[in-house]
Design a protein that fits this description.
single chain, 431 residues, alpha/beta, five-stranded parallel beta sheet, four-stranded mixed beta sheet, 51% helix, 11% strand, globular
Amino acid sequence: MGPMLIFDKSFLQSLNVDEAVMLDQMFCCVITPLFFAETMADLAKDTTRGRTAEQIVGGLAERTPVVQSYVNAYHQELILDDLLGDRITMDGRPALPEGIPVRAEGKTGVVYKKSHEADAFERWQRGRFSEVERITAQLWRDALSDLDLTAISKAYRSAMRREIIPKSHEEARTLARNIIDAPNQNYRALMLAHSLLELPPEALKDIVRAWRTAGTPPLRDYAPFAAHCLEVDLYFSLALSNGIIGDRRASNKIDITYLHYLPFAQIFVSNDRLHRSSVPLFLGPNQHFVWGQDLKASLGALNATFQAMPDEAKAMGLFKLADRPPVDDTGLCGELWDKCRPGWRKPRKPIPELTPEQHAEIVGDGDRFREAAYRRPATYVGSLTQPSNFDNVLIERAIPRQRGSWRMFSAEIEKSEDELNVRRRETKHLD
């Protein structure tokens, strides 16, 4: 499993398909709901450079990671959970939504169905778009055009005392942190979080009750994820109102919202200049910001390296051939693996081949869990690292056999999968 990485739309747009496939192989990509919304919003774009909006969205969908990707839960839902006392794990791994606890033949598990976003990306690649998606895309663009950052900037500027005006990104971030962590202002910080993070008004009473039950602690101790998001939004407002961030691009508000998801990855990659200035201010000691063009070059070099391998090696399929960089890689991908997965260059212990009986047991358990999951609603929201009592975790994915110029699986695996699908259809018919 590669390092956890969040990308923004600007980065994925810069990649060709083979570079995007290599990104998917080298990193576990955390897909934010924001990226999905931004991509869908392009359906309302005018035709540019001879390409229709549908072609633009389809091209982005084709590049979107599927092999090691995880769709993160929406940050607003996580903020509310955090403020209601359900602590959100923030250790560089994604918070997964809509898990379904199941039990089958004495074994327990949690099943994450293929996400609605993954379904949409598959349809978009084929040029299939629903009318609801087109309407939602237009509403998103209308809301963005109605966002008046100049008015927001003026409102904050008029409310600020002259002696606390920040003059740099660093000062704006420090001031935001000081506001949240001010001594004897715990209740004020809680109210500020509820207001600025745009939480439902009807939730306030339950939030205050849960906070009082916990002993009225500082916001950062009580709800660290909510405190992080509040700090990001305060920083943005302070920087905006003092000319540190420009107020002419409404999309700056969208760009800054990506920072809410920083606790759920180890690496953030972007070609956006605002991200280059702001993201490093909010990273932990084991997190890294990467400039998009630098990673693009490294992915291109890796693709060339694997393409130069003998045909018999490539016949294994990229899924097996390139599950990590070459051990002698001196590029940026290897450097990021060194930082996030130390020791990966050491010789790997051989993984014993599964016996036919073991393989059949794993497939059988997966099928039974999947069948049980489709009879139950999603009730479990968890992290990849949250301890649980589940024996198994099943994450549904749909990986194409061919991506760009790469065959993903060997002919043997493809044949085995075809035979397995035939048996599943026969079993379903008999039932």
